[in-house]
## 1
Amino acid sequence: MLKNLLEPKSIAVIGASEDVSKPGGRLTKNILTKGFNGNLYLVNPKGGMIQGVKAYPSIPELPEAPDLALIGVPAKFVRASLEELAAIGSKIVVVLSAGFGELGPEGKKEEKLLAEIATKHGILLLGPNCSGIMTYAHASKFTGAAFNLVRGGIDFISGSGATVDFLAEHAMRRGLTFNSFLTVGNSAQSGVPDIMEIYDDGYGPDSSKIMITYQESIVNPQKFLKAARSLNKKGCLVAGIKAGTTQAGSRAAASHTGAMATNDTAVQALFDKAGVIRVSSRMELVDVAMILQCVKGRTDGKRIAIVTDAGGPGVMLADELNRQGFEVPPYNERIRQRLAEVLPPGAGLNNPADCLPSINGPVMEKVLNILMEEVKDDYDFIVFMMGDSGLSDNWEIYRVLDDAMHKSPIPIIPSMVSVLSSEVPLRKFREVGGCYFEDEVYLARALSRVVNRPKIYEPESGAVGYDRVKISHLMDDQHGALTPQVTREVLQAAGVRFPGQIELTDKAGLKNVPFAFPWVLKVMGPLHKSDVGGVRVNINNLSDAEKTWDELMKIKDASGVLVQQMVKGTEVIIGANREEGYGHLVAFGLGGIYTEALKDVQFALAPLGKEEAGRMIQSIRSLALLKGVRGEPGMDLETLQDILVRIGLLVTDFPSIRELDLNPVKGYGKDIFTVDARIIVD
Amino acid sequence: MLKNLLEPKSIAVIGASEDVSKPGGRLTKNILTKGFNGNLYLVNPKGGMIQGVKAYPSIPELPEAPDLALIGVPAKFVRASLEELAAIGSKIVVVLSAGFGELGPEGKKEEKLLAEIATKHGILLLGPNCSGIMTYAHASKFTGAAFNLVRGGIDFISGSGATVDFLAEHAMRRGLTFNSFLTVGNSAQSGVPDIMEIYDDGYGPDSSKIMITYQESIVNPQKFLKAARSLNKKGCLVAGIKAGTTQAGSRAAASHTGAMATNDTAVQALFDKAGVIRVSSRMELVDVAMILQCVKGRTDGKRIAIVTDAGGPGVMLADELNRQGFEVPPYNERIRQRLAEVLPPGAGLNNPADCLPSINGPVMEKVLNILMEEVKDDYDFIVFMMGDSGLSDNWEIYRVLDDAMHKSPIPIIPSMVSVLSSEVPLRKFREVGGCYFEDEVYLARALSRVVNRPKIYEPESGAVGYDRVKISHLMDDQHGALTPQVTREVLQAAGVRFPGQIELTDKAGLKNVPFAFPWVLKVMGPLHKSDVGGVRVNINNLSDAEKTWDELMKIKDASGVLVQQMVKGTEVIIGANREEGYGHLVAFGLGGIYTEALKDVQFALAPLGKEEAGRMIQSIRSLALLKGVRGEPGMDLETLQDILVRIGLLVTDFPSIRELDLNPVKGYGKDIFTVDARIIVD
């Protein structure tokens, strides 16, 4: 399937036209201009020649089923064309025609029909209202003919055609190369995740190592998750935008492609779990892709070596790198000495290496050679920053840079700042395959996004003492809110600890309570225990307990005493909510005011890996409080991690759980107990 | 002075040369290329003609003292040239020559000498190691001749010459216009704040309304503050970068211009108090300047109307606007109806108005007219977003836009996204004075920076009960840490409340204690009160107090009892630290763990205005806790504000205070007391 998308042996244009202001005409022109090596079939009721190519009067007259068929006829004729294509055995159909779901319910109904027909015949349907596909091998897209795609470049799968063009113009101005553009239009049948799955299924050694995506709604979150994780493991990093996440944005998205508002917390958790670098603007997406193109798979490391020809931008770069958590370690004595031998007095030797504006090609070659020889063990990336002072030929310098980028043991990431005065040498640099940033601060931010990208974790498949069978038995036939007793039993069967408790009707039983002081004693029998003074906390020894027993039993209707372990310590909350399509979102935060007033909560999609749960905990702002302040012992983070993993397992195994709340979870060190809990199932 | 900088009637180039690869030669060429209307005097020992202009063999031979003299001779001859210029009466001298402070201590000494000579003769000295000045009237700068400046554009004052060129290239590519570039090089005598002061002193009705600055060190924070605030009040907004604020950045800055590390908290507080919009990259500075150029002084408002020709970018824009706190209110029924009359089916009518890619000039004119008529009362800004679909002539659309930008009742801010395919129409748009963003998300962020810019507050000059004379008397001859007693008296004289306390030697005195329960009773006499059980808290009534009195007086060495009002409630800390050159940095934060573990503290430079103090309080992350959670009353924010104002007054009136700490400040509602305090003076 992927091969037929990227390199079809035959393409049919249904609705081809001489008039290039019509989609069908523009599309034909683009395919012809770009040059397509296979068979191009044009279909137009009038037949004859269109743009110099023979046109068939109808689909049934085509000599073969095209690998790829594109429909550009008016909306009312689309269904018939699709059916005819199905009849001759077409398997990929792209509907460029507009006039469907974006116009209202009528159009929505019609595009649903198209999807049903396509699915029935095993056809992959893109669109309607879609601008097409463009790859290194063909330009089946009715906008943006100016683009020149390169095999092995970046794949861009987009829910918005305009976004492809607008992003590509910026990207290409800076030398980013693309393997394919694929737009899904209204996603009547197939959305971005479906296409990602096709790219993943067809992934091979020559496939692109970088994929970028734009979505306004995630039509199938689970498919997105699976495809992105799989691509990631095969060595293809994915970055993307999910727009329409605010009130104004989702209203705009609704009128654009009919996308529905989704909970952005779930979207973020999805991207994180999928290992997809999430950004919110075209420029940021270009920047992240630029880093990925420069580093060629070497995506980790914190130590940066800087070469520049100007002080100020070097300072701003060093500042931003520091802010983003990178290090800019000073060059050692030997590097400084070697640089001093080739650079003039006044040059900076200390990282940044400030080569001064008088730098030329031959000297830059020496500087880069010194760095490539010296920095490979102690640095992870070289950032190269160059303006045009007019004092030397910048193309000489870029040529040296291009050579170094190919042979350097660590990635070199360039920022070219003289966008006007270096216009000609920069064009030459792009022509030899060079790519670059135009601002050093954005470079640092994009590098940080890549290095600090979400990692893929393998979820735990079980845990010691986690008793799936028992839970299953307990959950049988449950609906709505579980009783406190069943809640407790379910969670205990999942390995979650509760404070000890025992119901006594005999005072002598106090001697055999199987847990330590302090205790809480609660009278059994009376309905409103607190109102009648029936709850006593902080019982620290047996004699106090016995005295309290006597007092409690004097209360009217007292039938016995509930003895509970009294838990002190820090409070956290752990919860899980089901988000349709996404699975369960597990939440972790500090209890009480921290969650209520400070919104200091972290989320991740279940099921969780141990490290993943650990990252949730480490990411709360109030982590210091969790670890213990002012001599308090705090909570053992591994124990919390273990509880999170168990909750992730529980909601994954029992998706009927709609809501789950452990609040508070309380304790010190490893002695962490769930004091109160609530589970709602449906 | 400013007039002579911007429009000198005569310019002298000392070290003029035929060789344009030398600064003196390049500079001469730039001045000639740009065209200078006054007298240009070249000086070169060889005399003769240089670049077609007569050269004088020496400075004394010049026919008059030039308004502006630029020195481009080798470093060792600079001092002599300066002295000769001083002798003929020059008042502005720019030293372009490098080879001074940036090379080490020797050069530092030499440039200090230059500064002394200049100051002695009342000369404004720029440089050394400075790339010069460029204005709408002359191009006295040895780099960047390509720039075309426009009277009334933006003033850019920079501590880095390369940063000017690099920023300007980006800015001009997008149509930003500049009034002047001024670089200060090593700032031997005059730095960015000094130049700002000159621009402020010479500010007139024709002056620029926008100033941008780049600094690696703030040579004179107080001058920066004064000039920026004064410019702001005159209608000129200032935005700027202070680089070199991280460890790596300040090392880079040190090797660039010898800037020293400064406390970034103080820098941020300085920018805030000065009303200067602070950014950290060239691009962000261009973006903020772009907003200011578009909005022509209308810098407030939250409600955005959007016009676009493409869905996706409209969604990303609406998202970012929402995230930045803007509103994108839906168009009302009348606007929707009027838009529907001119736009094709499928167009979005609901804000964003999505005009679809088929939009052309005449239709866009109608759309903009509708919006200009309808939105002026309900919206504050129009954001206009346009790509190039190839389906119509974009220049037609830009021409309509240009016209609308001139006559619209509310500012129109454009984002032009097809940077390659619209190259020609965009050039035309810039030629008629148009300017634009290239990314809608960056537009939203920059607009937010402008709308949410730091405001200028007038500090309070006094407060009820603030007794400057008494404090002055108390502070007389004080050094080091003040005693608890003096600390209390000083703060009380400033109007800060302490909990009541009274020393009693007679039990009967308990009846007349002038403050309410609860009390703390502390035995007087014994050295380590706590160790001997001499501190009793939570005394709630007189009989308990009398009983406790008896117990305390039984303690060995007891000589009496200190009765203190016991304060309950929320805890905050208030402090002040002197930062050399900046004045005092006043700090406010929630007490205890919030300050220690969560670093939730806000800072502002003293003296404070009431609203300014209010903003500090409102800006802490834990504000909800301060206001009271779970039914607790919280603290009265105005009372806290009042304490902050008093502390600001105190440290401003008594700059010998090096450190001041009120920790904790405690209470509920308006009853807020300083429980413990510390003042160190020098």
Note: The mean pLDDT of chain A is 93.
## 2
Amino acid sequence: MSSSSKPNLPVTNAVNGPPNADLVRERGAASFPVRDLTYLVYGGQERTEHLERIANMVASDPVFRKTDRFFLSRTEQYRRSLEKVRHYKELIAKHNLHSELDQQDLRQAIDEDLPIGLHVGMFIPTIVGQGTDEQQKKWLPLARAYKIIGTYAQTELGHGSFIRGLETVATYDKSTQEFVLNSPTLTATKWWPGALGKTSTHCVVFARLVISDRECGVHPFMVQLRSLENHEPLKGITVGDIGPKFAYETMDNGFLRFDHVRIPRDHMLMRFAQVAADGTYSTPPHSKVSYATMVFMRAYIIGTASSTLAKAVTIAVRYSCVRKQFPLRSGEPEQQILNYQNQQAALFPLLATAYAFHFTGNYIRQMYSDFVRGMRAQDFSVLPEMHATSAGLKSLTTWIASAGIETCRASCGGHGYSKLSGLPSLYANYIPACTYEGDNTVMCFQLARYLLKLYGKAQAKPGLRLPGNVSYLEKSTLLDERCDASTEELWLDPARQLHAYRNRALRLVANCANRLVAEMQKGKDEVLAVEAIKSDMVKVAKAHSYYVVLNNFVNAIEQLRASGTSTPILRVLKTLCDLFALHFIQADLGDFLEYGYLSSLHTEPLHAQIRRLLEAIRPDAVALVDAFNFTDHALGSALGVHNGRVYETLFEWAQQEPLNKTQVAPGYHEYIKPFLLAKM
Amino acid sequence: MSSSSKPNLPVTNAVNGPPNADLVRERGAASFPVRDLTYLVYGGQERTEHLERIANMVASDPVFRKTDRFFLSRTEQYRRSLEKVRHYKELIAKHNLHSELDQQDLRQAIDEDLPIGLHVGMFIPTIVGQGTDEQQKKWLPLARAYKIIGTYAQTELGHGSFIRGLETVATYDKSTQEFVLNSPTLTATKWWPGALGKTSTHCVVFARLVISDRECGVHPFMVQLRSLENHEPLKGITVGDIGPKFAYETMDNGFLRFDHVRIPRDHMLMRFAQVAADGTYSTPPHSKVSYATMVFMRAYIIGTASSTLAKAVTIAVRYSCVRKQFPLRSGEPEQQILNYQNQQAALFPLLATAYAFHFTGNYIRQMYSDFVRGMRAQDFSVLPEMHATSAGLKSLTTWIASAGIETCRASCGGHGYSKLSGLPSLYANYIPACTYEGDNTVMCFQLARYLLKLYGKAQAKPGLRLPGNVSYLEKSTLLDERCDASTEELWLDPARQLHAYRNRALRLVANCANRLVAEMQKGKDEVLAVEAIKSDMVKVAKAHSYYVVLNNFVNAIEQLRASGTSTPILRVLKTLCDLFALHFIQADLGDFLEYGYLSSLHTEPLHAQIRRLLEAIRPDAVALVDAFNFTDHALGSALGVHNGRVYETLFEWAQQEPLNKTQVAPGYHEYIKPFLLAKM
């Protein structure tokens, strides 16, 4: 009988041995130069190599190792993330990474929800955007040097998207020139802000301003929460962590209550609204700048939808080449899972989507840059379209990426359920993107209202010219047109693909508008009529957003062609674009069939062409995920390792499980031993 | 400055105060007697009260508390689950719960993946099913008294659904009359079996039997893994935990390797195949009994799909009545979320589905009982249909329940992401149901093959009578029929609803069969032709399964009507059945439109009727989830508490977060303090 305290590991356990032969073969068979596609994705060779230097620096640094997270308690994970924060600051100093872009690249390479994310992403930008020049001069140097750590507290226990419903109150006391912050109810408790629970010393708090019993709306206030000496909460402040979440273990999302906490008058961020010493309140001029910040954040979110989905697909495609199951014929070796049609049908449209979203992210960033340039000349004309479009794209991309990660996980069979696959964490960490920076459903309503308004205008005033992406709303004759893609070949025509998406979107907008009228004719006022079409409004917003994504993918390929991109790269991108276009018609086929735009004359070649595209992508699948160029550190997955030594990695990582520290697990002596045979 | 070590909690924090007024109002307005529906769901008043006694006993027992799991490390959770195992055994003795049903009820009430789940659910049944009488006499008393704890090890690191691909080998040594178990490769490592890692002393191991270099197929062997004295692994055995998973923290899913481990000849379970002392191998007679066990497990899984989805819907519906957001009109109070059409459209179809699956579970259990009765008279005629049907239903119900839980979570906004909502754990613990007991996709292939075979037979031999659920495959004339539901009212006709589902299923089977022929005409052999239609086969299996679910729901209501169930209950069940039927037509609308079965003449009234049904269910929504009769313990959710004191509960539970034990979190001194302002 063995009494060794360590398991007897198999000698084959070598994660760094020769690469998996199937992956080597797959890589050798790619139809295009992978490296060129990588350059294309990351904006050129120089930028790619810069990102690689940072990624490799992080990947080789033991402080930034990620796989230990699987085995740590929540508290240990939080502590480890603070260690990473300190090291991040050290590296910035050591390597002179003083530009915002360098720091962002570094954070992205660290690839964890660090408790300074809100400090950098919300606290500092809010001071910049809403603080007066003096306030910026006072707080920005402190914040940028991390001499204070801040966060952003808007959401409350009982209040989310409806900002005017916030209950936290800031009452102006003229006698002392102070605001008195208070949380009058339980539901007024600030709840969810990242890094609020334990890390932050300061916070921008959104509260209802009250001056002499007069309600002046919700405004931002700078509040110190914790002592800079000993980190204890200040008097009147109750602050803590809101407890475990689906993921985000490293982040101390927090709660915060005020018991008549006094702050000086100049702690209200007064770039727009102001309160004078005597309590005079001046209303803010309408600020369009805050919309720009929103669009900037959404562009970032759309880019992340692409990269996160790309990670999931990378893991699933590589593992599906390594994993084998069922021989095609009795006696033959088992087949690579990726050879199965249903596996291809699950993964390749997501691969295509990751590329599609990449180009959508580029498009929105470009739109944003153009807007910022125009804004300097007081040109706000593109704002409504940009605001509405980015809202819809944020929703569509985050929904599809969320569901897509789960599809990838499920496609990995049993091992996808192991955290060591990386996929459960990828999913659980990603899904809040559907809620933050604007709940997806609320975002869809915004876009749908915009589309309905323009459609109404165009109907009322024929000949009106609408801006780029929405110009199809002008032409209600489009509704009478039918698809003419009656062969597989015709379905590869981008003009026909776009025609289908435009037609679907217009049809849904028109139906929605008609239903709105019908509901009002039944006696509802407009408010109630809108309530009755809300489900349709979500469909409208998605349909328009699909069109925008496809349009950008098609345009991006045209531009690449014009700028001399090589044929093999253009060919594979065109195949992905085709699959994106056709897959999402197939997925919502009812929309296209319902009013006769398509019939089985068109859908049969559509289905056949999709099968053909899956076959076309198969030989390039590994190369297409390799082109995303993720390090093993970035993937954090035993199934997705670049060398394909999947089972060796899974086995080795599992040995780190704390339950494996001893042969006999905790609890045996108290709970199991008493009833086992030996005690009879 | 405060230096208190405990947060200053608001006085309003009282989880046991008066119930939420909105929930009280909702409950008062139900159109039907909730208690009667509860009796109907759980099989009568007596059975309901019995289950309630057990549920309440568990809910009030501190050992069985569930909410501490949110705050424990994996090791602590495993330890706690062993504590529950011991207590479970104590309660069985104390309350004389000696029947299998009583013990099952108790385990279900404890509602956790205990490390004896496999012992009870797989180890003992395998001894019963595959052991000889002597083997049963030897091991069953020990197992039933927990003097040994066993599990079931089939899956390997590199091998899942394809059993013949298993690599673990059992070589017969005639000289000693022993089998020598060995794991020749890394991928041969047993991987995933529950309770294998740390808990089990014994295991039924599936291994390739080799006698004198002759391969004799995969067989089950009884192997002792750990000493009954000190729980150390026996010589030659490497065993441990496979590490963290998406959930299942309480379960020590394990790995297991053999290094030439010898077991006596009579440790092969020999009810069917046998190895004589001299090494003579006798092949097993075909056993249909194992199919019956499979169907039994699937019936259980389908029932669990219903109850798990019901829990998620209970949480989401209650919270959506408590939670308010956005006033309908400026100045009005904010609205209950459940009043929003899109929220109803998300949740009510799932509510209807939970009821639908309940009746499907009943149906499969009944089918199973009939089969077992027939089997005693050597009547195996229903086996093929039962086997295929249950495979499809297992897949459909687990897929829909999985996605449905996530829909419920997302519908709870930000708080749905908190583990305290109960929904992340519910989801992550549930989803393996899509993989275990037959991977859903593989199950769909099985059903599709069965349907294609019968369809082929019916085509070849007109007039052939096919069994109940598949009899529609006889009538290819059904393909020429069209929907005539051109009004909202007509869509409520169950015959028309069923006609639509049958027509869709037949259409997909026929298309699939035609494509198979077409692929073969292109020169593929049958094996490759089947590969080319695999995506369509999954659609076929789902379409048939939807039909079976609806058919059973319709039949169940008819039977209830015939047996005198009260009108209010029948009315609300009919509304749920209608919503189930119409929602899943709307969800797959393309299938019904593609070949002209429906057109917009029918879909417009369809959409309108769905909106009407959502409105009809709204006033009964809380009563319909209350009828599932879950205790707060069973739900384990701050958002789903019966008294609706959601925010109080969320706040109180969050205080237990280990990070809140001290005001200043671990890591502050080492990692944050050094760079904060005070140190300048």
Note: Chain B touches chain A through 147 residues (CB under 8 Å).
